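Researcher: We plan to redesign the surface later, but first we want a full-length starting point. Tokens attached.
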């Protein structure tokens, strides 16, 4: 899910060209399809105190559970991650047989200038990664991508630091399409990121803090498809 949400996430540059938009708490619900299994997904943003916020995603259904969260600081127009976690578990049924349980935790130490990884880190990717100004994790990229698209920013280019590595991300606008949210048809901007066998597609509606739809594809096949039902 991190990779979805990279979006997961996307490391994003500072909001130099963005208008001063206030960050506000929200809760969003999605209908999800994960590897052919129907699931329910929830996204929520809550203030932790001061300039610190927590943004989380939970997906559950058909015996599978995926959870992802980021704690970040919002300092003016620059948001930066402080810590993040990403886990997936097959708890019962077919999911318990097909899914590999995994948990990864990341700490972003801006004083030391490095990100550190713990848990199920991929082989050869356990060493700290040097941070650069504007770096984000996958979850935080989702928030920033929405705001960048709504503000008309171009190019949509970011640097993502997670899963033991730093990686450049580039989303491209591909026009507008109609999406349905809560039974209502709305116009959304479609943005796409392609990286080898993986593709992430997001549909973003003006004035909504989260994508109206988020689709991750692998090898040309749908892997995770999330469709917004409500946000408040």
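Model: Full-length starting sequence:
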């Amino acid at each position: 899910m991190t990779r979805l949400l990279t979006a997961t996430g996307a490391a994003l540059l500072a909001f130099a060209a963005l208008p001063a938009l206030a960050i506000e708490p929200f809760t969003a619900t999605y209908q999800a399809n994960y590897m052919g299994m129907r699931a329910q997904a929830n996204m929520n943003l809550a203030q932790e105190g001061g300039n610190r916020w927590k943004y989380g995603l939970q997906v559950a259904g058909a015996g599978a559970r995926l959870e992802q969260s980021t704690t970040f600081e919002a300092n003016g127009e620059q948001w930066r991650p402080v810590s993040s976690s990403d886990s997936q578990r097959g708890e019962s049924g077919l999911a318990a047989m097909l899914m590999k349980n995994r948990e990864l935790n990341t700490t972003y130490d801006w004083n030391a200038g490095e990100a550190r990884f713990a848990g199920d880190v991929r082989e050869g990717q356990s060493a700290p990664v040097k941070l650069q100004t504007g770096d984000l994790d996958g979850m935080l990229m989702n928030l920033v991508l929405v705001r960048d698209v709504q503000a008309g920013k171009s190019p949509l280019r970011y640097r993502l630091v997670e899963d033991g590595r730093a990686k450049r991300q580039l989303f491209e606008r591909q026009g507008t399409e109609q999406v349905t949210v809560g039974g209502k048809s709305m116009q959304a901007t479609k943005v796409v990121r392609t990286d080898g066998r993986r593709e992430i597609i997001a549909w973003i509606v003006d004035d909504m803090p989260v994508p109206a739809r988020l689709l991750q594809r692998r090898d040309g096949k749908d892997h995770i498809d999330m469709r917004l039902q409500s946000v408040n």
